[in-house]
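Limitations
The structure tokens in this dataset are predictions for the assembled complex, not deposited experimental models. Users should treat interface geometry with appropriate caution, especially where small molecules or nucleic acid strands are included. An illustrative entry is reproduced here so readers can see what is and is not provided.
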Amino acid sequence: MSLVILIEDESRMRSLLDIQKQLVPDLIHIMRKRYDLMQSIRYLQPVGRRALAQNLQTTERILRAEVDLLKDWGLIHVSPIGMSCTEEGLQLLSNMESMADELFGFSDLAIQLERLLHINKVIVVAGDMDVSEWGKKELGRVGAALLKLHAEEDDVIAITGGSTIAAVSEHLTPSPHFRGVQFVPGRGGLGEKVELQANTLASIFAAKTGAQYRLLHVPDRLGPDAVQSLMGEEQVSEVLQLLKRSRVIMHGIGDAVAMAKRRKYTDLEISELTELGAVGEAFGYYFNAAGEIVHRMPTIGITLDNVRQADVVLSLAGGSSKAKAIMSFAKQSCQTVLITDEGAARAIVGQFRQARHPDAQLL
Amino acid sequence: MSLVILIEDESRMRSLLDIQKQLVPDLIHIMRKRYDLMQSIRYLQPVGRRALAQNLQTTERILRAEVDLLKDWGLIHVSPIGMSCTEEGLQLLSNMESMADELFGFSDLAIQLERLLHINKVIVVAGDMDVSEWGKKELGRVGAALLKLHAEEDDVIAITGGSTIAAVSEHLTPSPHFRGVQFVPGRGGLGEKVELQANTLASIFAAKTGAQYRLLHVPDRLGPDAVQSLMGEEQVSEVLQLLKRSRVIMHGIGDAVAMAKRRKYTDLEISELTELGAVGEAFGYYFNAAGEIVHRMPTIGITLDNVRQADVVLSLAGGSSKAKAIMSFAKQSCQTVLITDEGAARAIVGQFRQARHPDAQLL
DNA sequence: TAGTCCGGGACACTTGGTGTCCCTGGTAAT
DNA sequence: ATTACCAGGGACACCAAGTGTCCCGGACTA
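Predicted assembly:
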């Protein structure tokens, strides 16, 4: 019963938060800033403006505006000896602590991941795709927003297949940013369901955004000679040229075994893969935990070198089961933005914790 | 059990809202504006910018900024034939409907009350003082904020006693607005507990805000001759002069019978009061439902005429049981701002509904 | 007493929001 | 088919609010 309460409880607050995230998206950032400010004041009180500004890495004037507001709502008290929290402000802080994780935990997680994985930018959304459906929705929403953010006129944007990328397509809307854009599938068929294939998604992306698309018609599981002959095909080589100069790339990261099964590898092949230590997959490459390529799908399309040359690489993967896969792909160092969910993020942090000695508590 | 869920649920969302109201107070207004905008679009779709701007009483440009945002988050869709809600936007609207009452209902209530009671400005806060303790806290918080808002240097501010005004005192903080201000009790002792008397509160208000205060030392229950002689006292007449020119007045409104009981009226006197139809009390005056004065405490202090001459009258009363009392005092037409809570507000609206014929559904 | 902190005031500057206009394109009615 | 109207989008000048920066009077401390 208490579980029922918790779920109901969570869901209602979550839904309020969801609404606010859609209607007033920067709310959380503002709240976070004010919260940090209050906490700093509590910690340093009584403290002066200048010292505080330095502590919070901001300018004196901008801090002053915030302080004036907080003073007006009676959350802090200013006096000639410095600023301090009022009773009410302290109350507020303690009330927030119980919610801080849900409100801000994700950005903390994101910063942790940026450090642990050596990735420029990590975005963590709420939820866990392994557990709940709306986790994938949220990931799709944020992914779509970022794609729009980075897209520029006449760009070539390469995308891969997979259910995560499909989720993005549901949240795309037309925008002038997509004018003249061409969506190009990073790979031909990879033996998956058609609605999750890169070709299909490229056309959906184009339809939703009002952009153009190209298709890469190559069967999966090619023999080496077939690869050569297909490369000669004009239709194919043209697309490969486009992929080579794609400026933005959006792709999913898969769990090695799960992907292999989905692509109907034989049991023998799968056991070979696991023997090689494959844990992650992206663009048809399979990586081990060290990030080394241990296997490559026998087909043609975008190469890791192409990916490394792109300006923007949006990597999407969510769900705690994807933790190791994400970690293996992060080693490729061809990644500018990782978009993941809380479940995967916590699992990754957990992996790192486990890897260290138990006494390594700090940092 | 479902009740338990509801309460838990409510409280958690409420606490999030409370936090946001303290940390980002204008958030709700922004949400409300966007919500109205979305609803208008849904209602009028497909609709153009100019038509919409006219409908929403705003300029074209400012609406355009909002529309651009909503378009970017994918909540609305813009096309050459006009704007319309996307699937996601419709989803959001329906999600919000279940919460709209809690989020915005109060301002709607406030507008209704302004019309029904013919009061310039009504503010409705969440909760019901009769039911929950935090209702009074909220009322006090808002009351304190409004007092600070209206206070000006060297003002004379008259206040009365009562638990509601006492609640205000707990949320007062020093501010330059209160420089040179004098807090003056509107009445001497009225036979209540000392911590709720106007004298006590005046001193607390002064202490909390860093202002000055005066005291009005007159016993309650004076005979007519004692009144005359006291009026002659210099200490007393001086305070009465101050009261006469008080620019801001903050007072509570009481239920007639409850106040009489608290002031230890005899059963006979109380039944006389009820026979006279007394329902409301303020400043020691007792009013019937029509707003006529049916009884007056035999003591001296601020008069209704003084109140009518004030620039700002902040009337506070909360709890559904206060509905009739608030309505009776509203008839005095010496009121600029009424601060009440959801419970009282809904009860008042209910009273008006009941008073009409059942077929009077519109308006 | 001198130095160093405090908050608050002042002021110029810049940026972003805003009012206003026009343009092109699509739709619908003639 | 043509025309007239309304759609969204672009442009641009303008104003105000936010911002960087400096200084001042006061209080505490060494």
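Some entries come with short summary sentences. For this one: The domain at 106-362 of chain B is CATH 3.40.50.1360 (Rossmann fold).
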